[in-house]
Amino acid sequence: MKVLLLLLLLLLLLLVVVGDAGDEDECEPRSCGDLHNISYPFRLKGDPRINCGLADYELACENNRAILYLYHGSYYVLSISYNNYSMRVVDTGLQPHNCSSLPRHSLTPYNFTNYQDPYDLHDPYGLLYPNDDRILFVFVNCGTIDAVNSSDYYYVDTSPCINASSSPKNPRNSSSNYVVCGLSNLPVDVIKEGCTVELMVVGSTTGSNFKYESHNITTYYDIHREMLKGVELSWSILLCQPCFHKGRQCSVYQELNGLFVTKCFSNCKKPSQSIHCA
Ligand SMILES: *[C@@H]1O[C@H](CO)[C@@H](O)[C@H](O)[C@H]1NC(C)=O
Ligand SMILES: *[C@@H]1O[C@H](CO)[C@@H](O)[C@H](O)[C@H]1NC(C)=O
Ligand SMILES: *[C@@H]1O[C@H](CO)[C@@H](O)[C@H](O)[C@H]1NC(C)=O
Ligand SMILES: *[C@@H]1O[C@H](CO)[C@@H](O)[C@H](O)[C@H]1NC(C)=O
Ligand SMILES: *[C@@H]1O[C@H](CO)[C@@H](O)[C@H](O)[C@H]1NC(C)=O
Ligand SMILES: *[C@@H]1O[C@H](CO)[C@@H](O)[C@H](O)[C@H]1NC(C)=O
Ligand SMILES: *[C@@H]1O[C@H](CO)[C@@H](O)[C@H](O)[C@H]1NC(C)=O
Ligand SMILES: *[C@@H]1O[C@H](CO)[C@@H](O)[C@H](O)[C@H]1NC(C)=O
């Protein structure tokens, strides 16, 4: 009798263990091409396991490349880092061995709501370290105007990769075309009068000691190579979801020791307004 009971208990235990394993299997990571371990909160579009991952973090898998649709653009996902809630993406218009290929869309800090107001968070994605210095590439058509370098920015000729006159977007009769390289806080007046801005692309975070030389940027080939590295996005706003579910405002930031901290505010928009709120 005792043996039978023991056997029954064992069987029960086994069932429980098997049941648990089954639950884990249910949301096993997916992969798409070179991107492995696509797991919560990410999910692949069309995945029949509707309870795995969040709709806000859906990626498409097209021709074996994971693609993030962001605003008007589409971006190849190069990597996802689950420990620091970040990812690296590159515009799908850029082709590695074709320096004439361009990003399909401008992307600057201003496209992200977290740059304008860190407490007004609606997007599942933001720039990683939104207020840090980044390289910014401003594509301009200056016609026949002479471009001028300064110590803070740099006009780089886009030929022979892109010739102004052959650009269909650009019916103007122009003989020169430049990319102005600077930091993302590039003052507007560095774009010379008469030059038309065609495209603006933000690059990697640079830290404060940015020097073109240290990034080896001297020709347009270097700019193309730099754009191909893509840009780091943050999805740490995910940590605010429990707070949002309570109908509150939230902000999230990373402390120097790497820990992520969320602040959940009562109905007020900003902590400074909390005095006037319930
Ligand atoms: C895969 O992602 C999970 C988080 O969803 C993480 O805990 C795990 O370390 C990752 N594995 C690899 C090999 O990156
Ligand atoms: C970013 O904003 C610019 C200017 O409003 C717009 O032209 C561009 O399409 C936006 N980028 C994306 C990816 O939507
Ligand atoms: C995020 O984590 C990855 C993997 O640990 C690391 O390679 C990367 O440098 C980190 N990025 C930032 C911005 O901390
Ligand atoms: C390189 O990119 C340009 C611009 O997108 C395109 O017109 C051209 O066909 C591409 N060349 C190759 C070899 O793919
Ligand atoms: C700007 O400086 C770089 C590096 O010294 C040079 O290659 C480039 O031709 C200069 N551009 C203009 C418009 O003077
Ligand atoms: C731009 O013009 C140069 C010189 O005329 C030519 O060699 C090059 O192929 C052109 N590039 C493109 C993308 O048309
Ligand atoms: C472009 O320049 C050429 C020669 O300078 C001129 O003949 C032509 O009319 C110009 N085209 C336009 C659209 O201005
Ligand atoms: C710049 O080029 C030098 C020499 O080719 C190389 O050692 C260095 O790592 C490069 N720097 C960057 C940021 O790519």
UniProtKB/TrEMBL annotation:
Any one GO molecular function term: polysaccharide binding
Q: Where in the cell is it found?
A: Membrane
List GO terms (cellular component aspect). membrane
Which N-terminal residues, if any, form the signal peptide? 1-21
Kindly report the protein's main subcellular placement as a broad class. Answer: membrane
Which topology term describes how it sits in the membrane? Answer: Single-pass membrane protein
Keywords, A to Z, come to: Signal
Recorded coiled-coil stretches: none
Q: Where is the Wall-associated receptor kinase galacturonan-binding domain?
A: 27-91
PANTHER family the UniProt entry points to: LEAF RUST 10 DISEASE-RESISTANCE LOCUS RECEPTOR-LIKE PROTEIN KINASE-LIKE 2.7 (PTHR33138:SF30), OS01G0690200 PROTEIN (PTHR33138)
Report the protein name in the record. Wall-associated receptor kinase galacturonan-binding domain-containing protein
Species source reads Stephania yunnanensis
